[in-house]
Amino acid sequence: MTNSQLTAASFLSRSIEDEQRRFAQEAERLAEQAARIAANPPAAGRTASGDLTRLIAEATYLLKRAVTIEAGLEAVGLMGAETATTEQ
Asked: pTM of the prediction?
């Protein structure tokens, strides 16, 4: 493995760890928001559709980020496999 590969794998791993931390914080915030919506039904003359639409949009965004994180983890794994193969 070259130093640039090591650096790229290390950088990607750190980046993924940071993204996982942010993802967990945002997922927790989204869960709290969902709980608030569930605990506070809309008042007369107001619908929950706007709240639910925003909640669904944020959940969709988090799911897309989860896929990106998984792809990054896969890339780090492939870098490790390539290194193991190259070193043999």
From this structure: 0.75
Q: What SS3 class is residue 40?
A: coil
Q: Which residues contact 52 (CB under 8 A, 6 or more apart)?
A: 37
Please count the other Cβ atoms lying within 10 Å of the Cβ belonging to residue 6: 12
Instruction: Tell me how far apart the alpha carbons of residues 76 and 88 are, in angstroms, rounded to a whole number.
Output: 19
- Each residue of 14-72: pLDDT tens digit? 999 999 999 999 999 999 999 998 898 777 777 778 888 999 999 999 999 999 999 99
Under DSSP, is residue 48 helix (H, G, I), strand (E, B) or coil? coil
